[in-house]
Amino acid sequence: MTERSLAEIKKQNGTIHLSERAWGYLFAGPAFILVGLIALAPITAALWLSLRQQLPIFGIDAFVGFQNYLQLFEDDRFWAACRTTLYFTVLSVSAELLLGFGFALLLSRLSDGGGGGLRWAHVMIILPWAIPTVVSAQIWAWLYQPDYGLLNYLLYAAGITEGRIDWLGDPDWAIHAAVVMDVWKTTPFAALLLLAGLKTVPQELYAAARVDGAGTWEQFRRITLPLLMPVVLIVLVFRTMDAVRVFDAVFVLTGGGPGNSTETLSIYAYKTLFQTLQFGYGSALATAMFVLAALLSLLYVLLLRRHVQESA
Amino acid sequence: MMMWFRTHGLTACVLLLVGLFCLGPVLWQAVTSLKPDQDLVRLPPLIPERVTGVHYDRVLLQSSLPRSLANSVVVAASATVTAIVVGSFCAFALARLPIAGKSVILGVALVTSMFPPIAVISPLYLLMRELGLRDTLVAVGLTHAVYSLPLAVWLLTSFFQQLPKELYQAARIDGCTPLQALLTIILPLARPGLAVAALLVFIYSWNEFMFALTLTASDTTRTAPVAVALFPGLYEIPWGDLAAASLVVTLPVAGLALAFQRHIIAGLTAGSVKG
Q: What is the ipTM score, two decimals?
């Protein structure tokens, strides 16, 4: 089966003979066409739009170069949305990682004990992951309801708070309410990946460490954490990408309010695109989001590389 | 008793903790969906004194939710079939056939899945309008298929690579074309992998909100998550109805996730842990 070119399509005895390579392109073709048409073309169009000023209601459509991007720098609302997005991302991703690690460590104990406990834990832990984000936002909106929501009642009954807190109506609380909802929804994903990573750590390492007199914390710091760093990085990259792009959760929970206090970049871009119909500026906002997400993942990769070099 | 607690106590505590965290909010939604309207504005009691099916009755028989659920079934099923058929051919080419630029293809897939959907939504909307697909289920299904294609191709490529090369080569020597080899030899053997990819695509499509929100414009094309997000309330949010609708919309994906949790966890962790 030597490699032959596409041109070598021959007809013999009425059947078409193609080279392996030609079959390959034939197989991959439909995927290329679909991705090209529905994904790559719109992405290119978005980049092109971000260099234009488009206001269909006023009949304005002109090439403006990088003016939209320059305008971003002077746009206070853009910087506020950046801060909100970063705040949301840092808070929720770190909480998800810590909590997910905690869950994974607890659950890895279960697998030692046996008795089907782990299977039950898997069943429970997969539920928040599987629920539509929109639904989980509505579930939490009801928990946060100030007058008869469960959260205020429980906090009051436990004697922690005196009065009612308007979780979603108070600009200081609203973003944190969104973070808590996101942490609930996505910690299971982190926990599942970390749990799978924990299972790959050879048990002999712990046995050897115990012989050498290492405590639980030492074992965690010297064995578990370094060996799990690649999985931690993957969780960080996946979760950061999603947190930077967060839309569904905030859109349903607060719609960006009160007073833009929870307006993330994607919410701002959505409003710019669909409420004020500024397609050019909205596309520049969205591209800035992509750059932010890409820069953050680059940062993680560099951090990991340094970590690997240090431990080597 | 003491012995039982010593061996199972930790397990029980861990399960309780994890269970309370994961299930608590959902259970409360279930409780809410069964409470009569006048009891919704009273707390305590935590455990309802009387239950009613009126919210389910209203949501399933007197609203457009069944229509939205049917739309979601059509969208998710067609997105899954499209992504798996197109994806498995592409994945097989990447895994076994000598095509050029494989790393470029994987790079493009990565960028495609990283690009914020909000950025493509307005060009995509214009494209669908040009194609005459605005406000149709085809537009939503096609978009879901394409945006889950990178994931499907990624998973399926690694599954195909795990099958021995010799299987394919033997089939070719026996006179199968690559198409026949894929359809009769490879795909039947890759069924577990196809199932995992199909499950993940289906759940993604069922839950997806932003594309479904912007590409549809009417009750007749709305998918279930959009219906839940834009749940109609005249003056006040009808929390009981909303709770019932939320649970009904969640049921199919929660059922799939619970029934196939082992496959889904395998799919989610594939590649990220080994590599």
A: 0.89
